[in-house]
Structures are given as C-alpha cells and as structure tokens.
Design brief:
about 0% strand; about 70 residues; mainly alpha; single chain
C-alpha cells in the first residue's frame, strides 16, 4: 500500500512538471507575448496551467509527506 501511494505521489509531481512546462512554452508563444505587452499579464490559459500545476504538485508533495 505504501508503494502505491508513493508511486501516485511521484506521478502527480511529474504531471505537474509537464503542465508547468506546457504553460511556460505557451507563455513564449506569439499570442501570449502580444497579450503580455498589451495587458501587462500573461493569458488566462497560461495562468490556469500554472495554478493547476501548483495545486497538483502540492497534492503530490502532501502524499509524499504523509
């Protein structure tokens, strides 16, 4: 049981890294660069990916700690 929980926690962390990388890649795209120049902030989809990655990573860290 302990190994399954550790595997799931590490899988969550890896997924979070993937989502964060996708958000970072999207933030370097032309639409996001223009939006950042006009509005002074990244697009909503980039922010959603960053927040989702943070929540998933925290869940994975919580499972590792527990």
């Amino acid at each position: 049981m302990k190994k399954n929980k550790m595997f799931f926690a590490l899988a969550l962390i890896v997924i979070a890294i993937g989502i964060a990388y996708t958000g970072y890649s999207e933030s370097k795209g032309a639409i996001s660069v223009v939006s950042n120049a006009i509005n002074g902030r990244p697009t909503d989809s980039v922010m959603i990916k960053y927040v989702a990655a943070a929540v998933i990573a925290l869940g994975g860290l919580f499972l590792l700690k527990k």
